[in-house]
Amino acid sequence: MERSVIVTGGSRGIGRAISLGAAKAGYQVCVNYAHNAAAAGDVVSEIEATGGKAITVQADMTKEADILRMFETTDRELAPLAALVNNAGIVDTASKVEGMSLNRLERMFTTNITGPFLCAREAVKRLSTAHGGKGGGIVNISSVAAKLGSPGEYVDYAASKAAIDTMTIGLAKEVAAEGIRVNAVRPGVIYTDIHASGGEPGRVDRVKSMVPMQRGGEAGEIADTVLWLLSDKSSYVTGSLIDVSGGR
Ligand code: NDP
């Protein structure tokens, strides 16, 4: 049966690996992006080259109207929705709390928790067996920062990811009887552009000595766990927060 998945921030880094992996697993993929249309287009081309189906949808996770349009476009252009991966997220430059402006905090929380919350709401409307859907899966990309707290650097980011963990636990219980499983994956340090956007391109190499496995992770190592959570192989797993962090 044909089915689709929305991957927010599916154009780069971890989201890109998830989009490509989902297509291999047979999903039609909505590759969401905010700014970088070319990167999203590359992901779609790669999926189409192997016979899959995918679309790009520009939608800023800080804007409710964009999120609604993303779901409506997916409804119209792809197979029925079976899964959502709330992956899009941002970090800001390392700062102690005294340096965190209201503007920074609002941007952080709107992108990292309000957007995923609205996406989960729209997904539940479509997946719920109680509303005529067939059930499905939601995976939220959190971070090990949610438990470490990231003192002196990214306490705002860590708090936004702790919020997504709690949303995962609560929502999983709320929708379990409707055939929807909700889980979170908490990456450790992974080689992607997000560290450059946080003003520290070499961060993975700086912190890898703090990782018991003594290395940064690859985006594909996160995607593999996400795809397992969306598959029937994890059919009794819901409300779980799974660290994929080399033991950190
Ligand atoms: P990247 O910076 O490499 O990619 C971010 C992606 O999110 C891009 O596709 C970007 O699209 C999209 N995005 C950013 N802001 C928005 C927005 N407002 N609306 C829609 N899309 C947006 O990040 P990563 O792949 O590293 O991170 C993915 C997730 O994993 C995030 O939630 C992050 O917090 C989490 N994570 C990452 C870790 C790491 O070490 N890399 C560690 C722990 C968690 P565009 O290019 O168009 O801007």
UniProtKB/TrEMBL annotation:
InterPro entries in the record: NAD(P)-bd_dom_sf, Sc_DH/Rdtase_CS, SDR_fam
Domain of life of the source: Bacteria
Presence of the UniProt keyword Ribosomal protein in the record: no
Pfam families: adh_short_C2
Protein family: Belongs to the short-chain dehydrogenases/reductases (SDR) family.
Gene3D superfamilies: NAD(P)-binding Rossmann-like Domain (3.40.50.720)
Entry keywords, A to Z: Oxidoreductase
Entry protein name: SDR family oxidoreductase
Organismal lineage: Bacteria, Pseudomonadati, Pseudomonadota, Alphaproteobacteria, Sneathiellales
MF-aspect GO terms: oxidoreductase activity, acting on CH-OH group of donors
Ion transport as UniProt keyword: no
